[in-house]
Amino acid sequence: MHLRQSPGSSGIRKETEADFFEVENLTREAFWNVYKPGCDEHYVLHCYRKNPDFIPELSLVLELDKKIIGHVMYSRSHIDADDGTQIPVMTFGPISIHPDFKRKGFGKILLDCSMEKARNLGGKCLLICGNIDFYGKSGFAPAVTFGIRYADDPESGAPYFLCKELEQGFLNGITGSYKDPEGYFVSQKNPAAFEEYEKQFPQKEKLRLTGQIF
To answer: Which of 10, 93, 172, 194 is the most exposed place for a label (fewest CB within 10 A)?
Structure first.
């Protein structure tokens, strides 16, 4: 199978409204029972599209043989610098690859393309929580090495809290802390709304598995 080719995108294009449900179901399939029994990443995405920090130009789908097999979304965020200022940055996620296509390089293809688009839109720096074994291949490093602390885990150094400068040297002279945007916690804030939303999807078994973190 080959990536669909379209000018300048190599099978990656901006999400359209017609894609919304398909992409949310893909996200649900990608994250089901991964970090906890079930998942809520698809609901985060569903709600985030109405968030003023959502970046529609960076809500991207990856197609293979006319089928969407991957998606990523980006959000504006900021660092609370130690000098009292706020430094604008971006974060992203969920980044989803359909389970049938995981560990085949598609995640890195989507990530690298999306980061280049973020750079072209003026993004200077990305901050995320993730696995350095994956994100390190695309140039991420622990954020603490840039002087940026994870506000929810300042004592450990949070080795899973990662940074990539899209503009080299952007963080020179900057120290501070970072909190995940509130939009990522929407299911915890309104569990009843999440449960109602979840009813539209096929039933799947929630399992407690080794390696889950929640």
So the answer is: 172
